[in-house]
């Protein structure tokens, strides 16, 4: 099932530089693992913002929440989830 | 270039049924042509709403606007455009 | 899977009384069928408003959207969908 | 009487880890006691958020407020209360 | 139990003058009956607006909703309900 | 003259416990004096929130502002003032 | 006493031209009478909008409401009232 | 030219008392100089808030911005500027 | 002086096609005259919307308002005006 | 391609004065380089605010994002991007 996810990141100014670096490195690895597995279908940077629009393709709400709440940046994010489905005008049965 | 587009449709109640049908048929054909050409990369229905999230891959703002303002449903839509770019954590050079 | 749904109804003033009555009767039957089948788990009126909070327990986004867009009142509703999951503090494995 | 409650949690970053753990343990026990007593009828996690939708079944506003303001996490929550009642289309006399 | 209620009235322009007069007369009688019974404790006009803040003292959510949805002006109102309780600093046990 | 006042309290987390206690005790005394004098006609807690709806009956804007800005909690409050007047449907000449 | 008032006008398109002209003429006369009497202290057009900021100097809320609800354009206005008082830094005792 | 200005002040809690006193004294002197010169035409306190509505009569945007950004409290203010002009119903050619 | 203006157009559906055409033709001529005179410095279409961002360079608020309220589309526009000035980092004395 | 960019700056109070000065000097140089290159077409201060409206003329979203996220003040800004295109009523083929 598909979910549209908006993630808006706000890093606190007093986060030590090395801790920030560690978190960002873990975030990147975490995201790329999920992209490789096909669960994190798309991730796009929003121009001019420290934010992204993503599309997830997971089993159910539970799996989505496990993934999102496991994000190394989860505590620094505002997250909005929107359930998506096939559009009646889509030319593909399975647009992911 | 990629654009994230939110389209929210409100059909006026006094639109005659056959005119509605005609517009929707034209909208579907219009959308499917653009999907086949690769310009309308994704279109997803938002659960519970007469609305969609779409991703366009076009030359520039001009082409995007020509496409959107040419939508048979354009007069009945609230549209929001967000420019997207490759996310630094994306595993693909070219995630469309 | 569980979905929290907010439905806010606005009936247009010029809807003929008998058409309104017909739609409301169909809406009630439609809703009660789904309640009996267990898919429409809860429906509560919000005090002072022509609106309700509901909880649906369906297969996936598709089934939810089919149900919601099939509501006889769908054209007169503002609908907001929120995916729900088991809360880690819930005492029941399966709180529906 | 039924109340729909939205609780949105924001833990301050400088809360010491052990204090956080203590508060969360107390919150869980507090919530589970009330669930067992039947006063906290439902609690659902909202996907992707540190927030929940709950339904309370209590005597009156007073009891609700005593319960909510007694939450160990109360100081870290944004809370919205909505009074609910039986929906005229509900198939159950008593949908809790 | 006490409820704070905000009522904002918008009369459609095409409501015939005599129908408007009839509705307003019924609204006034309806309101005054409830004021006399003690259920509609307070009603204040908001300066410069066709709106009021009211306080109701009723048995439960059900009775409140029956009263509000029975208002002759109900279809032309935007209504917001807030449950109230005794304030810990109130000098009266029973501030209605 | 009557004023409807919404007060929403946010105590900063780093306020020392004894200072908080002192402020709250002064706030309570201050409020009760004004209630006894008849100037602070009503104060109701909003269910589930550290907030209240109040009604003041004072000479003029000046007196209202002197009272509100003198609140020991003033620095920690978001305050909204709405001027009220007799409602044409009120059964009492003088509903305070 | 002083009140800051924001008035935003929306004339319905189907108001006949002569009725519009009549209402506007009456509105102007009504406003100018009140300006001459000193009750409507200031009226300024907001650049680019069919709206104004005004300052009224009247006896009390009642008089303000009588004036505002008597505006020939009242039914076509969105009105917001804010009570004003002397600013502690004002050089005039009586800045109207 | 006339400008309507809304200024909303939020003093940070950790500003030392004497620094606060110094800033407020300078703010008052600064404001009174401009009032005397006729550039700061009106300043009114908004009831119940640490905020004011003001009217400035200055040469142009530049002068307005120089004045506003020179306010000793500028860093602690949220400021909204609205250009004003003579209202067609004003009885004075020059309502300042 | 420079003004940033946002114009959002909503044409009513029941405007006859030829009247629409006439208004749009007049709007275009009106705008182009002002562009030629240098008063309407910039006009840009916002991608995906029937809206524009413009920059005006006029004598004062009066002239701006005369121009805006004279727009053939004025009755069908939502307009927001923001006064602009030279930015301290601008490389040009006179960036219009 | 043209982009309309709104930048709203909030400098944290505890930023040391010399660090602030260094950042602002770098910001100015950075902005002026881009203005000279023609990529940062316009920058205007918004009257009364620590904010600006700018227009960028760059290759694509990527270049815009590189420029914006490279701003020395980026971490202290709220940024909104709007894609612009030639307006059909523009007298210039190329209004930058």
Can you tell me the overall shape of chain A?
elongated
**Contiguous uncertain segments of 5+ residues of chain A:** none
Largest beta-sheet characterization of chain A = 4 strands, antiparallel
- Total domain units of chain A: 1
Estimate the mean pLDDT confidence of chain A.
Answer: 96
Count of extended strands of chain A = 4
At CATH level 2, the architecture of chain A is 2-Layer Sandwich
Classified in CATH, the superfamily of chain A is: Dimeric alpha+beta barrel
Structural class of chain A: alpha+beta
Radius of gyration of chain A: 15 Å
Q: What portion of residues of chain A is helical?
A: 25-40%
State the strand order across the main sheet of chain A. Answer: 2-3-1-4
Q: What's the total helix number of chain A? A: 2
Quaternary structure state of the chains depicted? homodecamer
Classify the beta-strand content of chain A into a percent band: 25-35%
Largest interface: A-B, 29 and 29 residues
Question: What order do the helices and strands of chain A follow?
Answer: EHEEHE
CATH topology term of chain A: Alpha-Beta Plaits
* The CATH top-level class label of chain A: Alpha Beta
Catalytic activity (chains A, B, C, D, E, F, G, H, I, J): (S)-muconolactone = (4,5-dihydro-5-oxofuran-2-yl)-acetate
Pathway (chains A, B, C, D, E, F, G, H, I, J): Aromatic compound metabolism; beta-ketoadipate pathway; 5-oxo-4,5-dihydro-2-furylacetate from catechol: step 3/3
Family (chains A, B, C, D, E, F, G, H, I, J): Belongs to the muconolactone Delta-isomerase family.
Protein name (chains A, B, C, D, E, F, G, H, I, J): Muconolactone Delta-isomerase
